[in-house]
């Protein structure tokens, strides 16, 4: 990766974050055009580092840190685009912070995990579904945390709950379950495509990924059932969302983190 491009992208993400924080803390107006303009430039630079880091002459380098950087860029892009329809100022600093960390880690802790997508189009389908299902359900977990925070502020009857830069509580809840429905649908397709396109999908080295992903799928299905059939709200929703996202993180990154980072 180009060190200068990485540093510039990080600085732009941080600039956008620092322009957002006063509006969240002091309820002052946030200059939407300036913040999103800076964020989009940061995203362009972020994606350029991904192209350089992943697409090597000898294959595709899907190291754990490159994948983490890719996921963080997808999350940041989706949330930034969503700002044109809703107020997600609370979530953007978190997303941009993850993007900064993943960029720095991918630059200073290089790793190699070479794949050859050109030999397996089906594998591209499976990995694309996996990345987007994970990114979507991580966004859902962020929404759940925002929902819990807004609910807490409303119960405390603080002025922060009426911050014009924050979305209404009920709107956040509706959006949360729409996102979970989409993410869980993508996760379903990911689990279905695994045995079709991944060699030795249930081999000893991959069984835990399939098992943890399936348990996460069950968690999100129970959450959806509990909400629509039993009217679950509040803390249950938050905890189920976070637990599901945590299980997916273990499934996608757990063993590879040990092999590629700790044992290298």
Automatic annotation (TrEMBL):
Domain annotation Cytochrome c assembly protein: ranges: 40-262
Gene Ontology CC entries for this record: plasma membrane
UniProt entry keywords in alphabetical sequence: Membrane, Transmembrane, Transmembrane helix
Entry's transmembrane regions: 6-25, 34-58, 64-84, 96-117, 123-145, 176-198, 210-228, 237-255
InterPro entries linked to this entry: Cyt_c_assembly, YpjD/HemX
A GO biological-process term: cytochrome complex assembly
Presence of keyword Manganese: no
GO molecular function annotation: heme binding
PANTHER family attached to this UniProt entry: INNER MEMBRANE PROTEIN YPJD (PTHR38034:SF1)
Name listed for the protein in its UniProt record: Chromosome partitioning protein ParB
Organism listed in the record: Vibrio breoganii
Organism lineage string: Bacteria, Pseudomonadati, Pseudomonadota, Gammaproteobacteria, Vibrionales
């Amino acid at each position: 990766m180009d060190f200068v491009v990485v540093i510039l992208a990080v600085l732009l993400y941080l600039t956008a974050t620092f322009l957002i924080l006063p509006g969240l803390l002091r309820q002052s107006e946030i200059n939407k055009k300036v913040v999103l303009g800076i964020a989009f430039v940061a995203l362009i630079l972020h994606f350029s580092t991904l192209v350089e880091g992943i697409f090597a002459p000898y294959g595709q380098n899907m190291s754990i840190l490159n994948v983490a950087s890719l996921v963080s860029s997808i999350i940041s892009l989706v949330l930034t685009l969503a700002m044109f329809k809703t107020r997600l100022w609370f979530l953007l600093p978190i997303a941009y912070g993850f993007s900064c960390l993943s960029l720095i880690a991918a630059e200073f802790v290089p790793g190699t995990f070479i794949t050859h997508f050109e030999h397996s189009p089906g594998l591209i389908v499976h990995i694309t579904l996996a990345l987007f299902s994970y990114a979507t359900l991580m966004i859902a977990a962020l929404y759940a945390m925002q929902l819990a925070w807004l609910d807490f502020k409303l119960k405390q009857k603080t002025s922060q709950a009426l911050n014009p830069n924050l979305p209404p509580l009920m709107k956040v809840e509706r959006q949360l379950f729409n996102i979970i429905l989409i993410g869980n649908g993508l996760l379903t397709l990911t689990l279905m495509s695994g045995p079709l396109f991944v060699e030795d999908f249930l081999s000893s080295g991959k069984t835990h990924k399939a098992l943890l992903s399936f348990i996460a799928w069950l968690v999100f299905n129970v959450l959806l059932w509990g909400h629509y059939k039993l009217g679950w709200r509040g803390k249950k929703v938050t905890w189920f969302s976070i637990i599901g996202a945590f299980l997916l993180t273990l499934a996608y990154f757990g063993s590879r983190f040990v092999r590629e980072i700790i044992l290298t």
